[in-house]
């Protein structure tokens, strides 16, 4: 009998068996004054989940229940909680803690706090407990990382916004995507489809850049103004120095990836912002590639609480619909789902649902 | 007898003999309505000159007189010239032409015009004449790239501002260097010393990052607030996530160059802007290096006419003194000087002077 509270979740026991999920009980850190306890209703399936359980991102603490696109009901709030009400429908994303005291935290950059902790796999300092993600019955989270969900957005569509959505939204607003701007989204997957939806909602001319034309019809259905396939000869020729921003969701910079051809699309001081994190080690760049337009490349990591609330408001007001395939949560379905995601067999996000059937009402 | 006007200059005949200069006559493109003819008084010696004549930057047209940090007297102005008066002391930098009609040109980004031409080595479209630089008696340049020099700045100190100065100044002002900002200048050479002088003049807290401590006293004498030597153990530890901007003047990213250690110095969305262009092919980057602070890397190329005039005004008002060693121009002295520059034996810029002795008054 543990001295800690326990929740139940679907855990992977080791990267060697990353396609096998076990329904286990696990310890939860003590309930804090600023904590919110959430009975989970659904959870999106993120590439990070696959990278983590399969060991692609290095050592992790196992057994582990992943999942960080969580929507559920706040069933208990700590005595000092002011941001969330008991009974509210809320979401939790990929980050669950930061110091809230440093310069980064105080400037709405808490996702860059040096002391940040993720929603799963982080070791809780006082207890040594490893926090567990949203393939679970409940989650216990500091109120700063708990976000009320507007009524207009169904839970299964809100869930993937908690990570994929905010990851695409933040670099768009931080880099001025809006009317009069021309934005490219590289890669049409879970992140990329949100990139298109949000870039359009913000009013930017929005293009998709993909390897082939196979997703062109989907891109247009999401609202994209144009589509470029890098397999085409001279694919970038008609658009040199015309884009203000490229948000890259590519999670692979493999053989044949020609960064310079993308950078040549950027107008003066335009930016390439990467939000996909490849498992491969290195990206090779010729400094000369930056010279003809003074462009910049960089990365963006999630988004702030302020941006999360703004994104949800925009999504509610504009009626943005995530493209989601729902799957009832179970050990078997999780196995199938992570394998399908591993093969990129998804259009464009899975949300695990029917939590009551798996964990009780 | 050439059908074109001719000037005299010290030319290199081939990269194989890049340390040998020949005093030759050369053809000049026809005088245009917007052109200014300048009798050269002095010219700074830029690393680009060495890269160019030694073949480090690939094929060039020889014979060639390099030099693009020119100061002299406007002795003739075309009928449509409005920006320069006959008799004025003026400067010419590394760029001498762009279309002035494209989006880049119309937004003070003429240094990124796809049709830009350099001050030397560019082929003049109508005649096939290869333009020649400032190791010459005269230069003939479109008025847009001819800059009146404020009286307060001696010619030999103004000359290196035409390329090294503006190259360092532009990324500082374009990226907000000023009061309350913390700026690092990587490498204390010709460009770097202007980086320190201008960053301080703009009001930013300014640090120098160098391999060793050998230039620390000079950096402080230039006004630097601090100095970091990358050979020191844990050299970046006390400054993680504190810099807003790093301007890199390093012209080599060789063995042991650890970009990630520099990027870790940047605050959220801070920028590494490279103004040195290495001869080596590639820079290798882990995308992860950008994630912890959402930083960006990029490059900057020269600066606009508007910035050139603002820089000269600032230099005049603040009494900025370029650190210059003057050398009388001659075939022999040019040979010695480019070889010294090639070995980085310069503190911190050479200006070739005494043009009257070489070319006549």
Question: From the structure provided, what is the oligomeric state, counting identical versus distinct chains?
Answer: homodimer
Largest interface pair: A-B, 38 and 38 residues
Report the major sheet of chain A.
7 strands, mixed
By DSSP, the count of extended strands of chain A is 18
| The named CATH superfamily of the largest domain in chain A | Medium-chain alcohol dehydrogenases, catalytic domain
**CATH topology group of the largest domain in chain A:** Quinone Oxidoreductase, Chain A, domain 1
In terms of per-residue confidence, which ranges of chain A show pLDDT below 50 for 5 or more consecutive residues? none
Q: Kindly estimate the percentage of residues of chain A that lie in beta strands according to DSSP.
A: 25-35%
Radius of gyration of chain A: 20 Å
Number of helices of chain A: 10
Structural class of the secondary elements of chain A? Answer: alpha/beta
Distance between the first and last residues' Cα of chain A? 24 Å
* Mean pLDDT over the full residue set of chain A: 95
Shape of chain A: globular
Task: Estimate the helix proportion of chain A, in percent.
Answer: 10-25%
CATH C-level class of the largest domain in chain A: Alpha Beta
Please give the CATH architecture of the largest domain in chain A: Alpha-Beta Complex
């Amino acid at each position: 009998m543990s001295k800690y509270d326990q929740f139940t979740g679907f855990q992977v026991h080791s990267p060697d068996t990353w396609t096998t999920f076990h329904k286990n009980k696990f310890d939860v850190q003590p309930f804090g004054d600023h904590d919110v306890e959430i009975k989970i209703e659904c959870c999106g399936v993120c590439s990070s989940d696959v990278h983590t359980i399969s060991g692609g991102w290095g050592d992790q603490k196992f057994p582990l229940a992943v999942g960080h696109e969580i929507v559920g009901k706040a069933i208990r709030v700590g005595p000092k909680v002011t941001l969330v009400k008991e009974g509210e429908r809320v979401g939790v994303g990929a980050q669950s803690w930061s110091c809230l005291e440093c310069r980064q935290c105080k400037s709405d950059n808490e996702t860059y706090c040096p002391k940040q902790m993720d929603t799963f796999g982080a070791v809780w300092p006082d207890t040594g407990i490893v926090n567990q993600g949203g393939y679970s019955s409940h989650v216990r989270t500091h109120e700063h990382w708990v976000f009320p969900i507007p009524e207009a957005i169904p839970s299964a569509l809100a869930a993937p916004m908690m990570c994929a959505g905010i990851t695409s939204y933040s670099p768009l607003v931080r880099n001025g995507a809006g009317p009069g701007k021309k934005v490219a989204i590289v890669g049409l997957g879970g992140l990329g489809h949100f990139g298109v939806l949000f870039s359009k909602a913000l009013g930017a001319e929005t293009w998709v850049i993909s390897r082939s034309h196979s997703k062109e019809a989907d891109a247009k259905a999401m609202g994209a103004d144009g589509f470029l396939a890098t397999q085409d000869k001279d694919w970038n020729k008609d658009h040199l120095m015309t884009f203000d921003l490229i948000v890259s969701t590519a999670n692979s910079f493999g053989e044949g990836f020609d960064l310079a051809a993308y950078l040549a699309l950027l107008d003066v001081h335009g930016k390439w912002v990467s939000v996909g994190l490849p498992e491969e080690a290195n990206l090779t760049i010729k400094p000369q590639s930056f010279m003809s337009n003074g462009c910049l490349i960089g990365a963006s990591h999630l988004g702030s609480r302020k941006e999360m609330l703004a994104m949800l408001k925009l999504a509610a007001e504009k009626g943005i619909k995530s493209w989601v395939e729902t799957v009832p949560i179970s050990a078997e379905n999780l196995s199938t789902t992570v394998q399908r995601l591993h093969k990129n067999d998804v259009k464009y996000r899975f949300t695990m649902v029917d939590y009551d059937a798996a964990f009780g009402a």
